[in-house]
Amino acid sequence: MEDRIISFAKLGIGDIAQVGGKNASLGEMFQKLNPLGIRIPEGFAVTAAAYREFIDHNQLKEFIANQLASLDLVHFSNLRKVSSSIKTKILKGELPKELVEEVLQAYHTLVPNLPNPDVAVRSSATAEDLPGASFAGLHESFLNIKGKESLLRAVKSCFASLYNGRAIKYRHDKGFDKFDIALSVGVQRMVRADLACSGVSFSIEPESGFENAVLITGCWGLGENIVQGAVIPDEFLVFKPSLGKGEKSVISQKIGSKTKTMVYAKSGGVLNKNTPKTKQVQFVLQEKEVELLGKWSVAIEKHYGLPMDIEWAKDGKSGELFIVQARPETVHSEKDPFKLKEYSLTESGKILSTGYAIGSGITAGKIKILHSPEEAEKLNEGEILLTEITNPDWDPIMEKAAAIITTKGGRTSHAAIVAREMGALAIVGAENALENLRNGQLVTIDNSSGKMGTVYSGKLNWKVMEHDFKGLKLPKTQPMFILADPEKAFNLSFFPNQGVGLMRMEFVVSKSIRIHPMALVHFDQVKDRKEKAEIKRLCQGYSDKREYFVDKLSQALATISAAFYPKDVILRMSDFKSNEYANLLGGRQFELEEENPMIGFRGASRYDHERYREGFELECQAVKRVREDMGMENLKVMIPFCRTPEEGKKVIGLMDSLGLKQGKKGLEIYVMAEIPSNVILAKEFAQIFDGFSIGSNDLTQLTLGVDRDSEVLSELFDENNPAVKWMISEVIRVAKKEGKKIGLCGQAPSDNPAFAKFLIQEGIDSISFNPDALLKGIENMIQAESKK
Fold this sequence. Notes:
Blueprint: E1 5-7, H1 16-32, E2 43-46, H2 48-57, H3 61-69, H4 79-92, H5 97-108, E3 119-125, E4 141-145, H6 148-161, H7 165-174, E5 183-189, E6 197-202, E7 213-220, H8 224-228, E8 234-239, H9 240-244, E9 250-254, E10 260-264, E11 270-274, H10 277-280, H11 287-304, E12 308-314, E13 321-328, E14 339-345, E15 351-358, E16 362-369, E17 384-387, H12 395-398, E18 403-406, H13 414-422, E19 425-428, H14 433-436, E20 442-446, E21 452-457, E22 462-468, E23 478-483, H15 489-492, E24 500-504, H16 505-513, H17 517-521, H18 529-538, H19 545-564, E25 569-572, H20 578-582, H21 604-607, H22 613-629, E26 635-639, H23 645-657, E27 669-673, H24 676-680, H25 682-686, E28 691-695, H26 696-704, H27 722-737, E29 741-745, H28 748-751, H29 753-762, E30 766-769, H30 774-786
Parallel strand pairs: 16-17, 17-18, 18-19, 23-24, 23-30, 24-25, 25-26, 26-27, 27-28, 28-29, 29-30
Antiparallel strand pairs: 1-2, 2-5, 3-4, 3-5, 6-7, 6-12, 7-8, 8-9, 10-11, 12-13, 14-22, 15-19, 15-21, 16-20, 20-21
């Protein structure tokens, strides 16, 4: 007889056949990673051999085989009946006497001086947690099990869960039904997360597969709420290179509503209670704890040699963090890194709901609201399933849906994990979806724009482009991005590129911050009551409203800098015009009304002016935090609309006084070449700045005296005009002579191969493109270089 019970201390990853993937992984970590300081709770495994002994003891093998043979493998119409009959028989079975004795002996000696510890009892199938098959939540787990009767009952219930309907179908779909699958049971000391918090960590960013970040999610109480998708958790993104250097590595964090907290029930087991409002608006972890989990996640990934999906818990009594499970990440391990599909809407529509985007793409269909898996027959092929939360019972139903929307859950919930594995689109945590959507309503699901997904009314048109980068060689001239939205950064990092030649700060300020920086500095002076109330609401949780601006902006800058690290990311400091600044909350009070804002109080002229100096200081604080605290020295800065060399010197001096010293830790400061004076005095500007970026739109406008927004004069607006081309040629010539870098940001090189050829012949160092124009631009650059 093989061992019935094996301690985690004697198990390793090679023991999957004996104890299943989950228990083998726990044993591996307990043996190899505990000595490195990664805390794994003690435990033991009831082996697959013990399960088979139980089946033989109760003469169930033939019965199970006959029941499975009767299964309708086309429509699975009798799946529930087959599952129920097998499970009932197993639950009525008797555990062999020797097995009972060995289980109880291991249990009573699990925790010294505590004969009846509270434990977690988890299923671990012998085909489970292999790359390509997550088995997420298919088998049963039981928390807060205490006492011998409860433990033995939980062990038998785990055995029975091998034949949950969802597990039977999953094994069939994955081809595992042809193998002899057994079930092991893990018995693990409970971490008192019911008194603290718990969550899930991915050692890569799970949507894009970006490998340099760790995603950590957390909620109050036991972690089943995250796995089940019952709450919207807190999210933390940790940058691995900064973590490795011991620098501030939490590059972004987002608070979740966490409306439920799972705690111990007095009678055993668990229950869900409402989270107090005060705790809903608190992060569950301190920054040092997030960084520790990040380090552990990296160490676990390194040990296994592949991306990992990890469950963690914090003990409310000791304050210690623990890892309670780790399994291979099952989606990006199988993806071809050189092939990408790019989706984009070709028309706009009315937004009905938003949430976390799972999967990248666009689809359309009719909404079907379901409240339980028992309503499965109501869902027609190609409809969009809308429900509150999902669990593994929903898996067969989810396969029929064109997309899935849940009103609860985060990016590590069951619905998110299964949708990724199925290659389906989902939007989770769409809190208002049940209020705003109705049965039979035709909608479009748009998950093409990064982290957030959008539900639009009606069927919108979209386009799909397939890219294969294998063997693609980049041109010698550097192709770079023009980028504004941090949520797209990780996905775009997989495209062929040499970094970001222009990051527009304005998008972050208008979309994420929404408040005029001077209204944050001088909040008490804001007169509009409605705007003041909205500013107060947005800044909730920040004792200093200025920190709201710095924190939000630094998170956005860090996300883009991390995505392209160690390639350059060149940030253009704020270039709002006065009328655009006025549209921000509190803005009208702090802005001038100008006749012609395009050539008014904008760019460098603002930075050391009393009307905006304190706002510019906040911008510089955000840049300094990313470069110095987080160690992302690939973030460089660029000054827009700098009219004179004297103005340039003034800005450089101001930045120096604010802690951004040119040259320190490789800080480069560029200037936009977008005003004729930048070209005429290029040699003087080259003595002040580290390089130029040609802003072809403004340079064309100001050279030709044509309002670029004028419909009447649109035909005159042309970068190919000889006067504009002379300007570009001249500033490139001077930059090269002075040994300064020079690039161009604009649409023309992707639209016009001849213009790309002109730039390359003149010796431009880099050309930056909007994301949708990058590949066409690279094609034009390669063609131009071949004819140079």
